[in-house]
Recover the amino acids of this structure.
């Protein structure tokens, strides 16, 4: 079984913000397959489905970003999912809007959602898909910037990045992650 986790903050107030791009990818994946995230257990909304013979759980933690590990760890424990079978999707300030990067493992890079997951799992050995949200052009504090909606200039790139990220997730259900990185990191 594989687990695809999209990071974000719960509630309508945050739904279209830069920090919620992980949720947006999960929504894209669910919409493509007509899957419904309905379970509100493990402090998250989720669904367990089968795609091309591979069981997959989609998860949107409802703990707020900085506590994401409180949702991810119980899901992994309950379904007995190894860290190497987890892919976490999240926003990245250091990539241009809509650009994606996949990695096998790594540190938190200052991202509090990833820090929480590392702390709760006790390992950095899970896969990551980072989606660029760009850096603020003006002197806007980062905390304010990530909680704003995308600018109209960023919208096309962001929509493209969400679709490409969903494509990468679907490809991972069929191919080894190294091949997915080769295909989507170019």
């Amino acid at each position: 079984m594989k687990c695809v986790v999209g990071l974000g903050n719960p509630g309508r107030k945050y739904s279209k913000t830069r920090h919620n791009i992980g949720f947006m990818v999960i929504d894209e994946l669910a919409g493509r397959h007509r899957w419904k995230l309905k379970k509100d257990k493990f402090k998250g909304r989720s669904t367990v489905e089968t795609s091309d013979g591979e069981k997959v759980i989609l998860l949107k933690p409802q703990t707020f970003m900085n506590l994401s590990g409180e949702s991810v760890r119980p899901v992994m424990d309950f379904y007995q999912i190894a860290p190497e079978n987890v892919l976490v999707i999240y926003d990245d300030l250091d990539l241009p809007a809509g650009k994606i990067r996949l990695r096998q493992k790594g540190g938190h890079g200052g991202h509090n959602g990833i820090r929480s997951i590392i702390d709760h799992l006790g390992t950095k050995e899970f896969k990551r898909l980072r989606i660029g949200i760009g850096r603020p052009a003006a002197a806007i504090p980062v905390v304010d910037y990530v909680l704003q909606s995308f600018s109209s200039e960023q919208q096309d790139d962001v929509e493209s990045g969400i679709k490409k990220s969903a494509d990468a997730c679907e490809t991972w259900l069929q191919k080894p992650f190294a091949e997915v990185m080769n295909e989507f990191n170019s």
